Methyltransferase type 11 domain-containing protein (Wickerhamomyces mucosus), 383 residues
Amino acid sequence: MSRPEQLAPPEIFYNDTEAVKYTSSTRVQHIQAKMTFRALELLNLEPSSQMLLDIGCGSGLSGEILTEEGYIWCGMDISPSMLATGLDREVDGDLFLADMGNGIPFRPGSFDAAISISAIQWLCNADTTNSDPQRRTLRFFNTLFASLKKGGKFVAQFYPMNDNQIDQILSCAKVAGFQGGLVIDDPDSKKNKKYYLVLSAGQSERQLNLQGLNMDAPMNKVGNNKKLKKKVESTKNYINRKKELMKKRGKVVAKDSKFTEKQLEKLDPTFWRRDLIKPSERNGGSILRPGDIVRVMYNTRNIPTFTGQIIKISKKNLDSNLLLRNLINKVGVELNVKLFNPLISRIDLVRKPNKYKLRNRQYYIRGNRLDVGDLDASLRKKK
Ligand SMILES: C[S@@+](CC[C@H](N)C(=O)[O-])C[C@H]1O[C@@H](n2cnc3c(N)ncnc32)[C@H](O)[C@@H]1O
């Protein structure tokens, strides 16, 4: 069977029909999510890393994992149809139409890290007689290097057609100044074998997680550092996150562990907390959304009532929380409210916005004219 790269240029291959077909396939969603998690594991990012670039982001299947993991991301892709599908799905990242072979169109030092899932093999193909894959690949790596912060990292899962393509990619990365190499997962499996290019633009606090490094290039030795691997993610978090993901995709997943269920029952016997973030018959499917203004009351006088606009909702069972923002005495104040905190007596929805912000990009309101304003004063006025 021919590979997509051999059939047509990417912006033509990924047309409206293909973009919808690709994005709605549960098999594709599954595989892309799995590879994105693996890329993040290899990146082994510092907790302070926030801003990521997704190269060849398509319709945002890889990007939505970045959102789930709490990163802010920008995505670039050459296919208008894939990007349009991403916009329809209201992905959280900012999307740019750009050809990676023309270089990464961002200022130097813009990103903590970059990922690319199933895209960079396209660089190895010449779409027109005057396009030179080697030059395009080199321009890509040179500009990527510049767009990363010092010590920034890049992990790309890709599908090389042959060893020449691997050599082309590795040698251009090296010329651009990257350190790193290639990790091959499941090397003996014809079906599951996966190639990850794992690079860093100089030294970083936390080294790349190079378990399974297969082909080498100048690199600091990380070896089989189990602690590092463990730090990447605990098993419990991994399982919970996977379960949430599968639930979102409409799959039936195993019930939460008896411990979690018991705790939830104990902390929320009447379901009012869970009903705030999970659609059910009790709440008629109506749940809180980023942009809503809520008031949080505590059952102790020591903690004052807090009113705030929801910037983010994290749904993680017992660790679920709402990030609220208000402007108090002209100072932006943010409070992370743990939904199952037993000291909270109630959380009331006070107001819904006239219009929800596109893609709920609440983070961007901080400190600009879109900021929340003094909510208490505005609510008093309304009365
Ligand atoms: C298989 S899709 C992967 C999309 C996304 N990363 C995911 O995980 O679902 C490959 C994507 O690479 C994009 N692509 C191919 N060549 C590109 C180029 N030269 N510049 C930017 N994007 C490109 C395609 O348009 C397509 O959306």
The chain has 13 helices and 13 strands. The pocket of S-adenosylmethionine is lined by residues 10, 14, 32, 56-58, 61-62, 76-79, 82, 99-101, 117-119, 122 (CB under 6 Å).
